[in-house]
Amino acid sequence: MTICQECENLLRAFECLEIRYRVARSAVLYRISTEFAAKQQVDMERARYDMEEHMLICPFAAAVAAPCR
Ligand SMILES: [Zn+2]
Asked: Which of 19, 20, 30, 37 has an alpha carbon 20 to 30 Å from 46's alpha carbon atom?
């Protein structure tokens, strides 16, 4: 994959937080703090934003997003 190290780091961070959020959200079903799940969601959204912001300026991400140009 022609993806830069920064893309990879940001993607990995986002995926990790997304998994944590999903776990937290399913835990809510078992009466564990919704506040905790909300916090996990904020962390996830922030990681997503960081990733998207980097990909806007990253030439490698542009190449991956639009390979048929
Ligand atoms: Zn990048």
From this structure: 30
